[in-house]
Amino acid sequence: TPPYYYEALLTPNADATYGYDVELAFPSCPSGASRPECKLSHIGGLIQDDYNPDFATWYLLNHFDENSTSLVALTIDRDDIFDGVDLSYAGSYRDGNIAGRQNHWSRYDAQDMFRTWIDDTNGWTRSTHELRLQSSGEGPLEWTIGAFHDDSRGDENPNVQWQYHASDNRSRAISDYLWGYWWGYEDPTQLGIDMYGNGNVHYNGSQLRWDDTETAYFGEVSYTMDLQDGKTLELTGGIRFYDIENDYYYVDSGLWNNDTTDIKDGEDGNRIKLSANYRPSENFAVFSVYSEGYRPGGNNGSAPPVSCRNDPAVGNYSDRYTSDQTENTEIGFKGLAFDRKVQFSGAIYQIDWSGVQAKVYMDTCGFSYTANAATAKSKGFEIETTTMLADDLKLIVNYSRTNSEMTSDVPSIGASDGDDMTMVPNYNYYIAIDKAINFRGKDGNLRLDVNGYGKFKTHFNVKDQDIADGYEVVSLQASLQVSENTRLNVVVNNLLDDRIVSYKFARSRNIGSYWNIYHTYYAPDRTVAVRMDYTF
C-alpha cells in the first residue's frame, strides 16, 4: 500500500498556457488499500472488473513487446582431417528486431497523473564461430587447440527511444507544472515543438554505433601416466587468451538528458586451468581442479539522466564495466560400487570472485547501471548418485549446498562484508525414478522427478519483498521408440500444478515512495509438451 499519492488540482484559467492553473496535493492512502483502490475516485472507471490481484498490475496504458530473431547454425565434425587430428566447428548467425512500449513511465515520471510512455525500436545481428583441433589417438598424450569469435552489432538507428506525453490540455498543464516548475526542468510540450517539431515528444535516444566483440584462443594438454597395478594419474593444463572490444556511440536529447556516450574501449587477459585425476582402481578416482574464469565486461549504455546526477549511488558509475574474475578450486571423487550398480560422485569447492558485476539501483531517479563493485566468496559441496534398483529401474539423487557471501562493503548497493550473495539458493536437490518400459513391443521409459530449491534474495539491503521462499517442482516424462527412426517424447512440467513463486523483488529501497512496485514472478502452471524426433 503506498502511503500517499499525487493529485493534480486543476482550476480553469483562460490566460494559462494550457487553460488550467495547477496545484499538487498528496492525499493519504487508506490502510490496506492497493494502488488502484487508493486512487479509485480518480481512475475507478479504468479498472477491469473481476481481475485476479495475484497476476494484475495497474497502469494507465498497455505495455507491449514485439521481438523476433532469425537463427542459422552450422556444425561440422571431421575425424582424421590429418593423421591423428579431429576437427570440429560450430557457428551461428542471428538477426533480431525489437519493438515495444514501456508503460511504467506514467508512474515513475508522472505519478499516474497523466500518460507518458516510451516507444522502443532497434535491430541487431550476432555471429559466433568456434574452431577446434584435437588429438584422436589413444596414447597417453591428448591435446586441444582452438579459437572463438563473437561479434554483436546494433543497427544505426535514430529511433531507439522516443518518449511521449499525452496531448490533451489537462495533461500538458500537469506535465508543465510537475516537470517544469516542481522538478525544475522545462515545459515538455514547448521543448518538443522546439527540438523535434512535435509537442507530444520530449525525449529521444539515438544509436550511431554498437559493436561488441570477443576473440579468444585456447589450448589444453593432458598426459596420463600408468602407475602399474591398474593405477593411473592424469595431469591437465590449459590456458585461454581473450580480447574484448566495445565500440558504442549513443546520443540522448530532450527533457531528461542532453549527452553523448562515446566508448571505444576493451580489455584482454588470460585465464588458466590445472587439474589432476588419480585412479587407484578401476572403480574409483579422486581429482582436484584449479581454474580461472571471467564474465565479459560491457557498456552501461547511455549516460545517467540529469535526475540521477546527485543520487548517492551514482559515484560508482562509468560508461564501461570490466570483466569480473573468478578463481575456482575443487576437490572431489567419483566411482562405482556394489557390483557397479551404484554410480556416485562428490566434490567440495570454493570460488573467489573479484570485480563482481553488480547492478546498482539509483533510488532517487529509478535507473540502474552495472558496476564492478564487490568481492565475494562461494563455497559448498555437491553429491550425485545413480542407483540401479533393478535391471529396468534406477534412482537418481543429487544434492548441493552453497554458502555465497560478500567479502567487502559496498555502500552503493547496500551490501556489507558477510552478507549473503543475491540470486543464489542455499541448496538444490534433484530426485528421479526412471523406469524402462515396453509398450506393445516398443521400448521406452517413464521418469518421475522432483527439483527442489532453497530460498534466496534478489537484493542487498534486503526487504521481505526481495526474498523468494524455497520450492519444489514435480515433473513427469515419457518416451517411446515408435519406430527404428522415430522417438516420441511427452513432458509434463509442474505436474501438481502448484503455485510457485520463482522470483520477488521491490523496485525501490524506499518503501515510502508512491511509485515503488513489488514484483512477483510465478513459475509456469502445469504445461504439457509433445516432441517427436526423427533420424534420417
Q: How much of the sequence is in beta strands? A: over 45%
The largest sheet, given as strand count, sense and whether it forms a barrel, is:
18 strands, antiparallel
Backbone shape:
globular
Mean pLDDT figure: 91
Helical amount among residues, as a percent range? under 10%
Strand count: 26
Q: In terms of structural class, how would the helical and strand content be classed?
A: mainly beta
- What's the Cα radius of gyration? 29 Å
Q: What are the segments in which pLDDT stays under 50 over at least 5 consecutive residues?
A: none
Distance between the termini: 60 Å
Domain tally: 3
Continuous helix count? 5
Question: How would you describe what is shown here?
Answer:
The chain is mainly beta and 536 residues long. The protein folds into 3 domains: 58 residues, no CATH class; 222 residues, no CATH class; 115 residues, no CATH class. It is 7% helix and 60% strand. The chain is globular.
Write the layout of secondary structure elements.
Layout: E1 7-12, E2 20-25, H1 35-38, H2 40-43, E3 64-82, E4 85-102, H3 105-108, E5 116-135, E6 141-154, E7 157-165, H4 169-182, H5 188-196, E8 201-226, E9 232-254, E10 259-281, E11 284-295, E12 298-299, E13 320-321, E14 324-337, E15 342-362, E16 367-390, E17 393-406, E18 427-439, E19 442-453, E20 456-457, E21 467-468, E22 471-481, E23 486-493, E24 501-506, E25 518-522, E26 527-534
Antiparallel strand pairs: 1-2, 3-4, 4-5, 5-6, 5-7, 6-8, 7-8, 8-9, 9-10, 10-11, 11-14, 12-13, 14-15, 15-16, 16-17, 17-18, 18-19, 19-22, 20-21, 22-23, 23-26, 24-25
